Amino acid sequence: MKTIFVIGNGFDLAHGLKTSYNHFMSSLKSDIPQNRLLSLLRRNKPDYWSEIEYTYFKLLNAYDDKQFIVKSLKFDSIFRSSKELDENFEHIKELLQNYLLNEQNELKLIDCYSKLFSAFNDEDTLILDFNYTDTIYKYLNGKGSRIEHIKIHGELMSVDNPIIFGYAANVEEAKVLSDKNDEYLMKNIKKLRYLLTDNELLLKKYLKESLDSIDVYILGHSCGVSDRLILHELFTHNKVNSITPFYFGEMDGFLKTVINIDRVIDDYGKIEQKEKSFAKLNNYKQSTTMLQHNSTNTNIDEFMKFVDTMKAKHNNKLSSIGMISSFL
After folding, report:
1. Tell me: the pLDDT tens digits for 29-58?
2. If DSSP states are collapsed to H, E and C, what string results for 98-157?
3. pLDDT of residue 142
4. Which domains does the chain have, with CATH numbers?
5. Contacts 24+ apart (CB under 8 A), 198-201
6. Which of 249, 261, 190, 186 is nearest to 221 (CA)?
7. 296: left (phi > 0), else alpha (psi -120 to 50), else beta?
8. 235 burial type by CB count under 10 A (0-12 exposed, 13-18 middle, 19+ buried)
9. For the segment 172-192, what is each residue's pLDDT rounded down to a tens digit?
């Protein structure tokens, strides 16, 4: 059995890192000059990175439509051009990278996650890392790790693997923008940015060449539509056997994630395919809590018991354990 860990921003937050959108915005000076996009975002007060990306997409379609911007985004100033909007967005990306470079230095490893990745340190494990920070590197012990690690959204200040921060437009959405014949509207569309590296290709290769079934575990990723292109490809793949979200906030947190997964696996009206993919999703009692830097001993014990079960399945021992139990 193969295993894929999907890592999102909640994994950094679990370590006490201040990597949420609100953390970032609070760090910025209130008088950043001539960035209309930052001013608009402050006015709208979105809560999640995915909401930022969706707001950006709406502006790509109507950056100079004052009626739309005033009514829908509650902002009183239009962008003079698509180039200005793009420059504003690139400025935010630069500010974000500088902020995260400093914040990741505050990382303190959590012993249970060290044990988790040590238990899965083999060629049958892949980490699909959506974070820009170097948190996962700290757990993989450099060259000593046998786990394949794909930083699908890039790395901070990297030329070879630049960060991807934009919008995951579907085919119809991308066509609307493309038909406008304006390069500045397409520069941060994720399906195009993925072509700047071989990260997506490596994921496809891993899925295609896998001879075993794959279990997917989600650690700190909300599975919002802003990442639906990659997540849809993963969750609906015929090699994927199960999908297990680690939850934050008990049942409510679990439910929010599975609602997003339901949206992500939507296959444009192919009901039979969607239901087949949704059936891979494990329920609340088959999952466990997302361990935090300040978790209780009870949470830690539950987490480690769950890791033991995961590892047994990874080693393909559960069937033999079940057979032995039936004779006892």
Report:
1. 766 767 989 889 888 777 778 888 888 999
2. HHHHHHHHHCCCCHHHHHHHHHCCCCCEEEEECCCCCHHHHHHCHHHCCCEEEECCCCCC
3. 64
4. 2-16+109-162+197-326 (3.40.50), 21-103 (no CATH)
5. 199/150, 199/151, 199/152, 199/154, 199/161, 200/152, 200/230
6. 261
7. beta
8. buried
9. 899 999 999 999 999 999 999
Provide DSSP, 23-90: HHHHHS-TT-TT-HHHHHHHHH---SHHHHHHHHHHHHHHTT-HHHHHHHH--S---S-HHHHHHHHH
User: Which pLDDT score, from 0 to 100, does residue 187 have?
Assistant: 95
DSSP string, 265-307: T--TT-HHHHHHHHTTB--GGGS-B---TT--HHHHHHHHHHH
- Asked if 293 and 110 touch (Cβ cutoff 8 Å), the reply is yes
Please report the pLDDT score of residue 266 as a whole number.
79
Here the tokens at position 41 are: 């975002």
| CA gap 282, 240 in Å, rounded | 12
Q: How far is CA 153 from CA 120, 130, 282, in A?
A: 23, 5, 26
> Kind and range of the H or E element at 319?
helix 318-326
* Pairwise CA distance, residues 249 & 110, whole Å: 19
Q: How far apart are CA 262 and CA 113, in angstroms?
A: 28
Q: How far apart are CA 10 and CA 222, in angstroms?
A: 8
What end-to-end distance do the CA atoms of the chain give, in Å?
26
Using CA atoms, how far apart are residues 19 and 7, in angstroms rounded to an integer?
14
Low-confidence ranges of the chain (pLDDT < 50): 318-328
176 within 8 A of 215, measured Cβ to Cβ:
no
